[in-house]
Structure formats: structure tokens, C-alpha cells
Design goal:
Elements (H helix, E strand, L loop, with lengths): L3 E4 L6 E5 L5 E5 L7 H13 L3 E4 L10 H12 L2 E5 L3 E2 L5 E2 L2 H12 L4 E6 L14 E3 L4 H36 L2 E3 L2 H11 L1 H4 L1 E6 L5 E6 L6 H31 L5 H18 L2 E5 L5 H12 L7 E5 L1 H7 L3
Parallel strand pairs: 3-4, 3-5, 5-8, 8-9, 12-13, 13-14
Antiparallel strand pairs: 1-2, 6-7, 10-11, 11-12
Helix pairs in contact: 1-4, 4-10, 7-8, 7-9
């Protein structure tokens, strides 16, 4: 599922940028000739691995919001980031950390990006980041060191993808063990667009044992829990509005239903559908730290509009138990 940064963390405005949406590497660096060689090497090594380096200090975004267009949005959209933490001489010849670089480093950390922090071996880190793992480089070995670091980052993405595929495969087995099958095309087509199932990350399944509807969401670990609650709340509200409309139609039909068997059949059909939807279950398949806390969050957020569906979470551990591993 696409992970979107909905709101700006600095200003009161929408963001809508997609995390990791571009195959770029954001490079935070001082604007100094002292790091020119390192930047050229980073460009070369990144492009050799089909990654386009975005060197912030080299970009020009005229008549645009510099913070948004040049810095923050590019950090969000990047696959990973590189930070050059070298101290640079100021106008008085005193070596100091670059404030802009540290600010960008903080943004990367806040967005939970994969980061390669690098600094010349003979220099010292600022006190507030000394506990963070940093690649100490030498001029002589810089090319080999940065190449290896980029390869390790890209390998970690591949490992995560394989893990996600394995988890989804296991969850497919979980659905089989629970007796859930994909709902009929006719039924699903009727509600897919109205409930925006795909955009919310859900698919519709039937319980072959109980005949109960299940709105199943399989979410990878990169999706924040608050977003899952939001998607579940939106889905529940759509179901509530749909059922309210069904009830309105039933009320209108009942007014003039005397001796009209067709209308009675329609009323029965609408009431059955309403019962089916309001007794449905939202089933979340995702590894979470505290499933009960997530369930409580859902219940609390849905209290305002008067409909809470059954809400169940099956994490990786429970999934393994269900399939007997």
C-alpha cells in the first residue's frame, strides 16, 4: 500500500507526498568546495546503482517554497538519505557543524528514513548525535566506503520486500484456515466503488462457515497504526451511511406496500443487506506491538457516529499459530 504523508509537520497545510515515491537519494551537505570531491563520488556511485542523487545545495527552485519543494518533499519522496556531517570553515576560519545539514538530518530522522551519516575520520560529531551510528570515512577510502554503504541500504530494502512477501503468503494461508473466501464478483463490484475498498487497503471476503462478511486489510509494517485506524474509521462511516440510506428506502417503501409483494421482497432484501453489513467484521492482518490498544483506538474513534463493527487483529505470531508453525 502507498504510504502518504498527509499533513505538513511544520505548517498548517496538506502535504500528500508519497514516502519513497521516487528512486532518489537525498543528500544533505554543506555548501562548500571542501566536500566537492565527496559529492562527485556520491553521484557516481549512486547512479551506478540506478539511484539518482538529489544534492540539495545544488538545486535551484525559483519562485517556489524552498523548504517544501527543495528540502522536505524530497526527503519524504527519497528511497534513502545521505548526510555529510563534516565540519566546515566559516568566514573566520573556524571549523563548525553546518546548521542546515543538522536540521535536514533531524527531518530525516522524524520521517524514519534510512540514513547513511558520514563524516571525516579525524573530525568529531556534535554532542547530540554522538550516540548515533556514523560512517567514519577517509579521503582515500571514501569511494569504497560509500559504495558499500549504499549497497547495504539497497540490500535491506530487498530483504524487507522478501519478508513482506513471506508475511502476505502466510496471511493467505490464515484466510484459508479461517474459512474466508473472496466475495462474489457481483457483490463486491456493487460495493467496491461506494466503499472505496482498494484505496482504503481492504478486500471483501465471505466466511464460509458463518456466512459473515469480512473486510480484510493486509498491511505491511511500514503503514502507521494511526493510518490503519483512519482507514477503518472511514470504511465504517461509509457502511453506516449506506445502511442509513437503506433504512430510508425501507421506510419509504413501507408507506405504500399494501398488496405489493414485489415491494415486500425489496424491503426484505434491503433489511437483510443492512443486517449483513452491520454485522460484518473488519479483520486487520499486520504485526503490531499492542493489538488490544489498536482495537481500543478503533472503538473510541467510531463512537461518535454510532456504529462499531467487530474489529480483530491477527499479527504475525497469531498467524503462525493458526497455520501450525
Amino acid at each position: 500500500m502507498i504510504n502518504i504523508n498527509k499533513d505538513c509537520i511544520v505548517r498548517h497545510q496538506d502535504c500528500k507526498r508519497i514516502f519513497g515515491g521516487s528512486r532518489i537519494c537525498f543528500v544533505a551537505s554543506p555548501s562548500s568546495e571542501e566536500v566537492a570531491l565527496e559529492l562527485e563520488i556520491i553521484k557516481q556511485k549512486s547512479r551506478e546503482m540506478n539511484i539518482e542523487p538529489y544534492i540539495a545545495v545544488e538545486q535551484r527552485e525559483f519562485q517556489k517554497d524552498i523548504f517544501c519543494e527543495k528540502i522536505c518533499s524530497k526527503i519524504i519522496e527519497s528511497l534513502f538519505c545521505i548526510v555529510i556531517l563534516n565540519d566546515i570553515k566559516d568566514e573566520n576560519g573556524v571549523r563548525k557543524p553546518n546548521a542546515n545539514v543538522y536540521y535536514e538530518y533531524g527531518l530525516m530522522t522524524a520521517f524514519k528514513k534510512k540514513i547513511i551519516p558520514i563524516q571525516l575520520e579525524r573530525q568529531k560529531l556534535a554532542f547530540n548525535i554522538q550516540s548515533l551510528d556514523t560512517l567514519k570515512c577517509t579521503k582515500k577510502e571514501f569511494a569504497n566506503q560509500i559504495e558499500e554503504a549504499i549497497k547495504i541500504i539497497l540490500l535491506s530494502f530487498e530483504e524487507e520486500k522478501e519478508q513482506e512477501k513471506e508475511d502476505i503468503y502466510r496471511y493467505d494461508w490464515v484466510l484459508d484456515m479461517l474459512g474466508l473466501v473472496t466475495s462474489s464478483d457481483r457483490f463486491e463490484f456493487r460495493f467496491r466503488r461506494f466503499f472505496s475498498l482498494r484505496s482504503l487497503g481492504f478486500n471483501l471476503y465471505n466466511d464460509t462457515k458463518e456466512g459473515r462478511l469480512n473486510f480484510v486489510g493486509i498491511f505491511d509494517k511500514g503503514i502507521p497504526n494511526k493510518d490503519i485506524i483512519l482507514y477503518s474509521k472511514i470504511l465504517t462511516l461509509k457502511i453506516k451511511n449506506f445502511c442509513d440510506d437503506l433504512q430510508r428506502q425501507v421506510n419509504e417503501l413501507e408507506i405504500g406496500k399494501k398488496h405489493r409483494s414485489i415491494i415486500e421482497d425489496r424491503i426484505s432484501e434491503d433489511e437483510t443487506l443492512k443486517e449483513k453489513l452491520t454485522s460484518a467484521r473488519i479483520l486487520i492482518l499486520k504485526t503490531v506491538d499492542n493489538p488490544e490498544e489498536l482495537k481500543k483506538m478503533y472503538m473510541e474513534t467510531c463512537n461518535d457516529f454510532g456504529l462499531c463493527l467487530d474489529f480483530e487483529i491477527i499479527d504475525r505470531n497469531k498467524a503462525l499459530q493458526l497455520i501450525g508453525e
